[in-house]
Amino acid sequence: MQQAVESLVRLLESYRGRDKVIRTVCYGSQLVGGVLSRKAEADVSSHQLGKSLLLFSAQLSHCRTVLRLFDDLSMLAYSHGYGFGTEEEDKVVRWISILNNVADQLYYPCEHIAWAADAELIKLKSDKWWLFSTVLWGTSLLLGILRSLRVLLLLKKKLKRCERDGTGSSRSRLRRQMQGELLSVLSSMADLSNAVHWMPPGFLWAGRFPSWLVGLMGTTSSVIGLIQMNAGSNDQSESA
Length: 240
Prior knowledge:
Blueprint: H1 2-13, H2 15-37, H3 44-67, H4 72-82, H5 91-118, H6 127-165, H7 168-197, H8 211-239
Main location: membrane
Keywords: Membrane, Peroxisome, Transmembrane, Transmembrane helix
Protein name: Peroxisomal membrane protein 11C
């Protein structure tokens, strides 16, 4: 029990870890709140609790939006460090990653402008800026899925070579990498389904998700993110 609490404290002490926890609680609250709020006349107390959870989820979402005001520089540092991806072995992975970084970099100022317009800090209509940010987020997710699928294909080829050569340690490492990429695909697909939902009506299934389904997709993605963060921490501990 104490070890679990210590792990949670360490997670909350880091910015990325805290963001993932807030994200998980945000979407989890929306999932439960969406389910409970459907019980309107049948159970008034459950319906009221559901509404409260949805409001709580909205406040956590707003909290994450405000915190992202300070993410531009870290994203810029990451993009600068990656550059044109000259260290990548595969050209397809390199160019997908570059485009992904561009989409991510443009996402933040668009969201900041939309937030500032809603907060009446600037005299602009926020609708189109929220649309731009959603399109950029969806583009980033789609590129991330394509990148992971390409990496999976390359890892599969490497795994076949290792099986022919009989190198057991390399096989286990490659399988872990493949599992990580599969989780990334599932996470991005869940988020992409929500991104489409938040597009203007008439685009695929835009606006058709009930609150509980948005919460389910977001919770799935968030839990996968926590699993990946934990796996990354364990790998660093083993290498150290």
